[in-house]
Structures are given as structure tokens and as C-alpha cells.
Amino acid sequence: TTAAEETTAEETTVAALVAPETTAEILALYNKTINDAYAAKVGFSKERYTDNETLNAGFLLKTFGDLVYSFMGIGAENKYTMDVTKGQWESDVPHHYLRKSTLTEADLTAAKCTEKDGKITIVLNVKPGTSKASKSESWTKAPIDKCGICVGDLDKSYFDHKTAPVIYAAVGQVVSGAVIEESYSNAKVVAVVDAATGHLVSLTVEFDISVVIDAAGGGNATGSTHVFYKNFKY
């Protein structure tokens, strides 16, 4: 056969990621990275704590302060840690310790991306949010809940953002007439991605919280929540 007739196998290579520049491109990379990790049921280590706490307490919070702090995840004694083995995720959705990301550009105030030593770092500033719960109403408007952290509406220790409905699910059993108003601010999400594989290296989510309990002897509490995911196994 002639050289022209000979065929050679084509090698398939995967191009390394390049740090995107526009907000749309940065967000698309973030969402894909988080959602690929979710789909792969990755293994990882997780840690969450809330510090810098302040408490302006009436009788209710002075009496049940420790209990309220536990509902909010505040204090060293309420620090949450978990090691998740690859593939061994709970079948019950609320127990998934990482969620899909559904963030949109409308949820952000800023986005930037840098690349160094084969790692791409994505930084997203997420808009503030609020929530409210009482015996007669319950709602949440929280863009940070869409970034992949573990969230829900019941009283669960593994929820990373303790919204008003979550806190009321517990406090309401102690004080049925309580009205809970919660808000967060200064929310920042930082994801580090391996440029060669597209795999998530680490994920950090931080935001400041404020909770007001409107009831006889109520009060308000504030703190800073820190959520860390690391040691990802694909």
C-alpha cells in the first residue's frame, strides 16, 4: 500500500481549561463544575461553623439561648463536620451534602476568575437574601441557597444556611407565637478547579447572618457562617 492509503489512529486529547473572563462564562464554568461533582457523587470532607456571634437577648433567648444557638448552628459546640465516601450518598435527597448549582447572573453582584499553577479560582459575590417564618407564613428569598450548599426547610443539623423556616421548625415548638426573621449579607463563594481535569479541588461559601426572634422575651443574634468542602475524590 502507498503512504496515502495508510491510515493512522487519531489521538484524542482533552484541552486544559482556560480561565474565562465574562460573568456568563465564569458562572457557566462554576455551575458545570459543581453539577459534574454532584452527578459523580464525589467523595469529600466538609466542615461548617458559625462564629463572631453576638446575642441581644430578652427572657426567651436568655432562657433558651443554647437551644436557639443550636438551631442556628452558632458556636464551637455546634460545628458540623462530615466525611462523605465517593458514591455512598444517602438516597434521601435531604441528606445529600452537596447540591446542584442553579445560580444565574441575576443572583450575583460580581464574578471573577484567575488561573495559577494549573488551578482556576472562581470568586462569586452573591446577592443578600431574607426569609421569614411564623405560624401563619413561611418564605425564603436566598440566592446563596442555589450555589450547591446543603439547604432545606426543616430543622436539620446538616443544613448550611439556617433560614427562618428552618429555625422556626424548632423554635416554634418552644414558643408557638414566635415570628422569625432571618437575613444574610456579604455572601462569597470561592471554587478552585483543576484546569487539567475540570474537577473541583475545594469549595468555600461564607456569609454573615442575622436572626430576629419576635416574641415575648425575644431578641436577635448575628454571626458569620463558613462552609468548607475539600479532599474531593472523583
Give the termini separation: 45 Å
Silhouette: elongated
Strand content: 35-45%
Helical coverage, percent range: 10-25%
| Nearest-integer average pLDDT | 87
What is Rg? 21 Å
Task: Kindly name the structural category.
Answer: alpha+beta
Number of helices: 3
Q: Characterize the biggest β-sheet.
A: 9 strands, antiparallel
Number of strands: 9
Provide the low-confidence segments as ranges.
1-12
- Give me the strand/helix succession: HEHEEEEEHEEE
Task: Please outline the helices and strands.
Blueprint lengths: L22 H17 L3 E15 L1 H14 L7 E5 L23 E9 L2 E8 L2 E5 L4 E4 L22 H11 L4 E16 L5 E15 L4 E15 L1
Antiparallel strand pairs: 1-2, 1-9, 3-4, 4-7, 5-6, 5-7, 7-8, 8-9
